[in-house]
Amino acid sequence: MTRQVVVIPDLHGRADLLDAAIRQFPDAHFLQLGDVIDRGPHSMATVAKLLELKAQGRATLLMGNHERMAQIGPDWYAQYMGTHDMGDYRRAMEGYQSWMRAGGETVRQELGGLTLEQFPPLLLEYLRELKRVVYVTADGEVHDQPPGAPSVLVSHAAPPVKHQQYPNPLSAALWLRPFEGPFPLPEGVVYSIHGHTPVRNPTRLNRHVYADLGAYQTGRLALLEVGNPQLHPKVTVLCGPGQPERANKYIQFGEMLPVTPVDLAAGKPGERPYYRA
To answer: Which residue among 32, 68, 101, 274 has its CA within the 20 to 30 Å range from the CA of 129?
Structure first.
């Protein structure tokens, strides 16, 4: 039996859009691209819902660069607790402060305080569950390694490739931007799907699809149905509360994919075209 797999790009604390995605695809297995936390208003509720879905066998969770930034401080602090080496503590504080500057401050405010000594257990649990790269085959199965059959590669920012700035391919998968490609794909991979780089519309560039619509600002969230790997994904765009005009600052490149907009206020596919600059 084929399982429906729906890819969800960067949420950044938009628990309302995650709930809307679940209503839109009540029987799907969700593959979340990372950058679930910070910047937006409800990081912890978003994390809690995704962990609940994973416990039900209904979600595969990937790491984004913001999760990686959030992870560095607690990891070094845990090491410091074993070594009592002040160098480890310094690295923990540097990692923590770097995340605060990059968006973590919104999580601290949401919680009413956040320190390395009292890091939220729910967030630690979430960070431990995250994968870097997966592959989806036509039957809807999600694989940790290239399966040898036609598949779609899914990761936060880019395929895992060696890069002069990121010699570890799994780090490159969290950070690289489209203009640093095109990126080679493993044998059998037909195309890849990524978030990380905000775009005005879901976009295909060579064999890579980019789908981060800046949901935490614009209120627009792309949902990509991954079916037959020989075809490109079917894209639904949820249109919720936000400032869609903020997309004006996002870059344009490649070929825009056709989308079906869903106006969340109306609760049904919108008749107006999806917002374009």
So the answer is: 101
Q: Judge contact between 40 and 216, C-beta under 8 A.
A: yes
Comparing CA positions, the residue from 29, 47, 72, 42 lying closest to residue 215 is 42
Task: Return the axis-axis angle of helices 43-55 and 15-24, rounded to nearest 10°.
Answer: 30
Report yes or no on whether pTM surpasses 0.85. Answer: yes
Task: Convert the pLDDT of each residue in 9-42 to its tens digit.
Answer: 999 999 999 999 999 999 999 999 999 999 999 9
Nearest to 5 by CA among 45, 53, 43: 53
Domains in the chain (CATH in brackets) are 5-64+130-269 (3.60.21.10)
Q: Which residues contact 147 (CB under 8 A, 6 or more apart)?
A: 135, 137, 141, 188
Reduced to 3 states, what is the DSSP secondary structure of residue 150? coil
Q: CA 67 to CA 47: how far, in whole Å?
A: 11
Which of 151, 270, 162, 184 is CA-nearest to residue 219? 270
Q: What is the pLDDT of residues 182-233, one digit of tens each?
A: 899 999 999 999 999 999 999 999 999 999 999 999 999 999 999 888 888 9
